[in-house]
Amino acid sequence: MDWTAEALTDPLPLARALIHRRSVTPADDGALDVLQGALRALGFRCRRMPFSRPGTPDVDNLYARRGEAGPHLCFAGHTDVVPAGHGWTRDPFAAEVEDGVLYGRGANDMKGGIAAFVAACARLQAAGETGPESISLMITGDEEGPALNGTVRMVETLAAEGEAIDDCIVGEPVNPDHMGEMIKVGRRGSLNAILTVHGTQGHSAYPERADNPIPRLLDMLAALTERSLDEGSAQFQPSTLTLTSIDVGNPASNVIPGRAQARFNIRFNDRHSGASLTRHLQDVCEAVQAGRPGRFDLEVEVSGESFLTPPGRLAALLQDAAEEVTGRRPALSTSGGTSDARFIKDIAAVAEFGLVGRTIHQADEQVALADLEALTEIYRRVLVGYGRG
Fold it and tell me: How far apart are CA 182 and CA 319, in angstroms?
């Protein structure tokens, strides 16, 4: 599609064009081509940044910049989406508009948010308004997947090349129910663990001849969950440990299994690190195991550390703009899950603000056109405010 600067002042056509692309992670299906065409129409220099590594899918990414000098404001987002799943009342990739609502996978997570920022840039240009000396977009195709060949690799590459970014808006749909409710200025860390307890398989009629791992696993889980990890901190809610699976893989009722396994996730605040929690988990399990037969294995993967960007200029601009447009002044929050902000915070001050996330990952994902317009106007005002210094 050939874009014009004038057509791009309305976020809806670009949002629909992006939704039409079935860019389910790690497939791109031309979504980045659509976005690149739009950005080039606005004078952005576009660079594709494909990455791969053994054992992971290849991922394409896009970095686009307009301007050379600082200060430099970046917008980060993703064109990949989760699978459509079941229960839709319409084609999830048709981008239908009905009664003032746009439907489709990615409508608010986060193709709609990308379209709103592009439209804000187009309006800035059309009105001849002064914005940041440099504006860029860092768009990945790997946010909903393993996140190994997307934003993290872009950040590493840009940093190695000396690309300086001062502030970054991450366009995730962080508003719970209404536009203007929330800005994320930090995120909890996330740790996934697999605890496997090994015993000796045997006949259930002769338990003395076996070593049943199930009681030890239950004791370990009880020890891990009986006390809260903390009471929260000044900027973060309490850390949580959530059991997600307990499995012995035993189809027989008269066999004591040889192993039992549990999986759990910890969302942790700034009172902990991935390393300190790993030591805590190991210590608790070793205390339960001490003096008992068998052994255990603990596998831990930390997908992100907790972080906080001290509220500064960008958060204040977003708060002011959101309040002017919606009448609500967003609260500064660190709640929720992880996002690619966990990578970008290493090179720039980060604030997350986008659409309403009530229907993300659901059937009939949708965004009100009024919210799409409100976000575009909020972004435009932030660009203008950022340009004023």
Answer: 9
Residue 1 has pLDDT above 80, yes or no: no
Whole-number Å distance between alpha carbons of 101 and 79 = 20
Catalytic residue among 60, 80, 352, 371: 80
Which fold, 7-187+306-388? Aminopeptidase (3.40.630)
Domains of the chain, residue spans:
7-187+306-388, 189-302
Q: 3-state class of 17 per DSSP? A: helix
Task: State the fold for domain 189-302.
Answer: Alpha-Beta Plaits (3.30.70)
Q: What is the mean pLDDT of residues 77-88?
A: 97
Give the separation between CA 142 and CA 81, rounded to whole angstroms: 9
| Widest CA span in the chain | 84
- Hey, how many other C-beta atoms are within 10 angstroms of the C-beta on 77? 24
Instruction: Please return the burial class of 327, using the count of CB atoms within 10 Å of its CB with bins 0-12, 13-18 and 19+.
Output: exposed
Q: Is 2 a catalytic residue?
A: no
d(CA 39, CA 245) in angstroms, rounded, equals: 45
Residue with structure tokens 């700034």?
Answer: 270
| Angstrom distance (rounded) from CA 65 to CA 72 | 9
Query: Rg of the Cα trace of the chain?
Result: 24
- Given a contact cutoff of 8 angstroms between Cβ atoms, the answer to whether 121 and 42 are in contact is yes
Residue whose token pair is 């440990």: 241
- Mean pLDDT over the full length of the chain: 96
DSSP per position, 39-56: HHHTT-EEEE--B--TTS
Residue 96 has pLDDT above 90, yes or no: yes
- Measured CA to CA, the distance from residue 264 to residue 283 in angstroms comes to 16
Question: Do 184 and 336 contact (CB within 8 A), yes or no?
Answer: yes
CB neighbours of 102 closer than 8 A, spacing ≥ 6? 12, 15, 16, 19, 95, 96, 112, 366, 367, 368, 369, 372
The total number of residues shown for the chain amounts to: 389
Question: Which of 28, 109, 142, 143 is labelled catalytic?
Answer: 143
Cα–Cα distance for residue pair 284/293, rounded to 1 Å: 16
Based on the residue annotation, tell me whether 143 is a catalytic residue of this protein.
yes
**Per-residue pLDDT tens for 138-181?**
999 999 988 999 999 999 999 999 999 999 999 999 999 999 99
